[in-house]
Amino acid sequence: EDQVTQSPEALRLQEGESSSLNCSYTVSGLRGLFWYRQDPGKGPEFLFTLYSAGEEKEKERLKATLTKKESFLHITAPKPEDSATYLCAVQAMDSSYKLIFGSGTRLLVRP
Amino acid sequence: NAGVTQTPKFQVLKTGQSMTLQCAQDMNHNSMYWYRQDPGMGLRLIYYSASEGTTDKGEVPNGYNVSRLNKREFSLRLESAAPSQTSVYFCASSDLAGVYEQYFGPGTRLTVT
């Protein structure tokens, strides 16, 4: 069964304290892996798509990486405005439409 | 350019009542989706429409119906609401099915008492 597990469930960081969020997945052939950011009371906001192992993408203080079994979202020198829930989702090769989402990691960055 | 819009933002229903959630996108996307989000369970796909004129069931379709009114609009109907349908509902759209990213609306928070 296709599955996505995110860890930790919650993470508290001091401003400037770098860390990583993990997304482990099992899927019968990966078509793509997606990272989203979700603020309280809002819809998910698209961040990155990764297609193959070894691929990396960056945006400001965020960098996403992909291996054959997991993806990491690295946050470098975070700021309080990076506080949000970060969602990971995968799309299998045999599914053109369905995204399988993890439960997310709630990140709190304290000043 | 508003992206994906949803109405209403909040709704309270009594068990057995019906309602329709509205969704519209102005990005000229072909595919549209309805998800529900419950604490600790992640987003789950209810129904999707790969293109205008087509709809298909997702992971949790029971108790819901959808209509792809035109390329821009995709509605979700609850015929007889149940407390188990208390959730936050998100509509999303994507350019084409496949690896194109999905863009989400702001959500509708529904409570069924």
Write a structural description.
- The complex is a heterodimer of chains A (111) and B (113).
- Chain A has 111 residues and is an all-beta fold.
- Chain A has no helices and eleven strands.
- In chain A, the strands form two sheets. In chain A, strands 2, 4, 5, 9, 10 and 11 form a six-stranded mixed β-sheet that branches.
- In chain A, strand 4 and strand 5 form a beta hairpin.
- The N and C termini of chain A lie far apart (41 Å).
- The model of chain A has no long low-confidence stretch (mean pLDDT 95).
- Chain B has 113 residues and is an all-beta fold.
- In chain B, strands 2, 4, 5, 6, 9, 10 and 11 form a seven-stranded mixed β-sheet that branches. A four-stranded antiparallel β-sheet of chain B has the order 1-3-8-7, with no helix packed on it.
- Chain B is globular, with a radius of gyration of 13 Å.
- Chain B starts with a strand and ends with a strand.
- The model of chain B has no long low-confidence stretch (mean pLDDT 93).
- Chains A and B meet through strand 4, strand 5 and strand 9 of A and strand 5 and strand 10 of B.
